[in-house]
Design brief:
This protein is mostly helical. It contains eight helices and no strands. Helix 3 packs across helix 7. The longest helix has about 50 residues. It is globular.
Length: about 230
């Protein structure tokens, strides 16, 4: 249970600060600032809960770990459930904060850092492009996580590498889809906002899962010794 609670807290922090930076200060921070907010959240949580749960705080990462044999099927399911709960709590807190600031006009006006394509994309990326982008970005992120966490001796730097990787995939992805690479992070704001965000969220659940499966299978294939 300690591992599951850790995943809940870690995902809550990631979503609150990452999506919060996009929703509240996105126009000031810009793409780089929002990307760093997500990346720094991962770094902080990695050094707090990494030794407890592994600090997946992302269903895509948990899927990759499961494929590589580092997470059991039962834990995979429970991890994902608690990650989604943590994301919903994080977005709930963000919605309350925004609604307590009258000058922001409420979270339906500011948004909640949701993902989108078409008219919801900063550059009008269509659904096919969004799927391709999210598969690629998730693959790169999960592949990196699997690699850097494989050896115990990488423990001192793993959190920094993972955080910086999340930041750089956001730098590319934010103008395209808002960057998901994390189904829990995408589901939570969509549930609160409904409408277009909820209609499009399937892309940001399906594509990261595909990217994670590819990363997990490829990494396992590359690191499995021949008989």
């Amino acid at each position: 249970m300690k591992r599951y609670i850790s995943e809940l807290i870690g995902t809550m922090v990631l979503v609150l600060f990452g999506c919060g930076s996009a929703a509240i200060a996105g126009s000031v921070l810009g793409t780089l600032g929002i990307a760093l907010a997500f990346g720094l959240s991962i770094i902080a949580m990695a050094y707090v809960i990494g030794d407890i749960s592994g600090c997946h705080i992302n269903p895509a990462v948990s899927i990759g770990m499961w494929i590589d044999g580092r997470l059991g099927a039962k834990d995979l399911i429970i991890y994902i459930i608690f990650q989604c709960i943590g994301a919903i709590i994080g977005i709930g807190l963000l919605a309350i904060i925004i609604n307590c600031a009258p000058e922001l006009g409420g979270y339906t006006l500011t948004g909640l850092g949701q993902n989108g394509f078409g008219t919801a994309s900063a550059i009008g990326l269509n659904v096919i492009g969004a799927i391709i982008v999210e598969i690629i970005l998730t693959f790169v992120f999960v592949f990196t996580v699997l690699g850097v966490t494989k050896k115990v001796e990488n423990g001192a730097v793993a959190g920094i590498v993972i955080g910086l990787t999340l930041a750089f995939v956001h730098i590319m992805g934010i103008p395209l889809t808002g960057t998901s690479v994390n189904p829990a992070r995408s589901l939570a704001p969509a549930l609160f906002l409904g409408g277009q965000a909820l209609q499009q969220v399937w892309v940001f659940i399906l594509a990261p899962i595909i990217g994670a499966v590819i990363a997990g299978l490829l990494y396992k294939g590359l690191t499995t010794e021949d008989a």
